[in-house]
Amino acid sequence: MLDERIRRSLAEADSLFPDEAPELDDRRRSPLVVALGAAAFAVVVVVLATGLFRGSEEPDPVVTVPTTAGTTVTTTVPTTTVPSTTVLAGPSPESTVSGRLPDGTQFRALFEPAIEMTRLPAGISAAIAVDLADGTSPVVGITTFSHGRIDAGSFENDRYLVPTGDWTMRIEVYPHVLAALGSGPLGWQALQAGIEGSPAGGLPAPQLHPPFRWTSDDEVPLQMSLDFGPFVVQRGCGELAVACNETRAVQVIPADRVFAPAPEWPDVDVWVESPEPRPETDEYYLPPGLFAPRGGHDVLWTGSEMVVWGGAEGDRPPDLVDGAAFDPETSAWRILPRAPLEPSTLTRAVWAGDEMVVISEEATAAYDPVSDGWRIVAEGLAPPHAPGLVVWTGDAVALWNDVGIHVLPQGSDAWVQLPDVGFGEGGDTYQGALRVLDGVLYAIGNASGICEGREAAAWTSDGWFTVPAVSLRTAELADCSFPNQTAVVGGRMIVWEDETHPTMAYDPATDSWSEIATITLPGTEGAQGPVAIGDRILVPQWGIAAVYDPVTGEWTQVRLPGSGLSTDMVWTGDEVLMWGAACCYGDGSGGFRSVDAWRWRPGD
Amino acid sequence: MVQRHVSDPVVRAARDFGQFYRSEYRAVLGLAFALCRDRGVAEELVQEGFTAAFRRWDEVGRMDHPGAWVRRVVTNHAVSRFRRLGAEARALVRARRAQSAPALSPDAVAVWDAIRALPARQAEVVVLAYFADLSHGDIADVLGCAVETVRSHLKRGRARLGALLGEES
Predict the structure, then answer these.
(1) Does domain A290-516 have CATH number 3.90.226.10?
(2) Which residue has the higher pLDDT, B58 or A450?
(3) What does the domain layout of chain A look like in residue ranges?
(4) CB of B25 closer than 8 Å to CB of A21
(5) pLDDT digits (tens, 9 = 90+) for A205-259
(6) Which of B51, B94, B128, B149 to mutate to test the interface with A (most CBs of A within 10 A)?
(7) Which residues, listed in sequence order, are joined to residue A76 by a DSSP beta bridge?
(8) Are B111 and B91 members of one domain?
């Protein structure tokens, strides 16, 4: 009976798939075709560069674009909508942009883009190096868009319609601003924008990214290394949008961070990614981070700075071993020195009282913000995939990975694996969260794949001390998301599920759970980990957040600045700082990472 | 431009791969969809899997079961994708489901969701057994594990599915 039901259900989906396979893009398949394609690409560019081709009979206007520092870049703006198969910029030895910074430093931008052409525009990346006066050419930015969807596909009658056409990319570098754009069926779209200089002016501190590599054994994405051709500036859409075609914007970035105002541009019908419109003001915007967009990173609050650390560009390994810190007092970012670690499959970071501890399989390192230096503190350990599984207990770092729960006592150079916590089926893997309540380490979770309830245990010097399990009365097939649905506030551990289940609290004084709210709100599944804001819990998701107030015993919904999925947040004591987002387009078909940052005070 | 004769090894390899791609595409797409429950993501995974196969076609094309190799790549990508993105991916998929989920019957949706709730390895084995109709030995080839391991995962997966779906396994 069960077998038949499974087969029938799976076969039902089978009928939805096309009988014939779509073409696998030739450029992805053959190095030969790639080479030929690159050659053709170059020909187009040469034609463009020599003025033998124009998208319009009218000559393109020459536009002088002022930058935030007052330096100008003169370039040519195409005047017509360019067919998706037309290449505006491409391989050419002329692909450099030079200029002079306010302090007199000559700069020259070298483009080393790698473009992955696929049936879908699945990956575009580029490294931007800058020639400095001392003869070095540090990479100041790597922009990557890979394995997201930046097409305009849509579902109609169960068929996914994907506009085909070539994509290309161009990069714009001003002294303080960089924008990387991709061109596709929708027109030019921003892939990354906004690398700004320090408040004192000048180039950002050299940011030494590791070389961009995919290292998976079974996948080496096709990449073409090209020098970019003529430097082309894309017009903006009104004063806010940089990603547009004639009528729509797909990303909204204040124009003064990317382009000079372009008032001649028409009003745009802006797509927003969240259910609620983004506030039409930039008062919440912080300067963007000085580094590449990323996913799977950690965001920490040190007591004076928000640190963004690690993660992977394009959400794919290797994880970066760099990061930056934002000081809300000065509203400025600073790049952290690179960790003494090799890029690895995964790293995790946790704030451990007075330093940031970064765990990778290679080694465990610590960053001291006072000395602005790193040191290796312990052997390596496989980090967990979720950030809610590494905590600071007050005297040790605790970590829960696929093997078990480990602790690194302060001052020790060796991880110690704790005895099995003993949840669920013996010997199975667990999913759960680690939390610290009154200085005691708690593990909460259950055997992998069971979502009905959660077991809990507290670690003492005598071993694991079992506390009552909490039943969430979850009979349905919910996703288990323990790290995002467990928080400690007001001396209690709070767990919740979704809008159909009660919110429960564990009080260590009575060693018991109690129901503290009968209903939550949609969205409390939590795309990101919860943030304790004072004695309240904030659960961010999709540009909104659910806030639980233990005084009133109610969940309420607030609207946050920004609108993307997966914006990380920290609580400073009087405001929430937010960084990054995985944004998707209005139809849910695509996404990209941003480096936008915001601040928000409860009550705003 | 370099022109190549149809007997050229490069051309022949491309032709062989084309046949392989067309014959396997639908089944591999089904597998990817089963693992990620998102049509768009599944298509992307399948593209990645076949692209990887093409790049190594000299090697993969000589295998006894090149289809198993592609399924393994797709399976690995699906699992790593969801492990990495974690809750974010689930949230994204949830949000996209409303707009992009194919029209399945409520019971089929329940079964798909139950499979997605299984531990990754169990879900892979269940899908490969029931959807791809592979033998235990072929599944072991795809997943790179022992046949006994496949049986163990299948047994536990069925048991858990039965519990989740309220049926005797």
Answers:
(1) no
(2) B58
(3) 26-234, 290-516
(4) yes
(5) 222 222 222 222 222 222 222 222 222 222 222 222 222 222 222 223 232 222 2
(6) B51
(7) A62, A232
(8) no
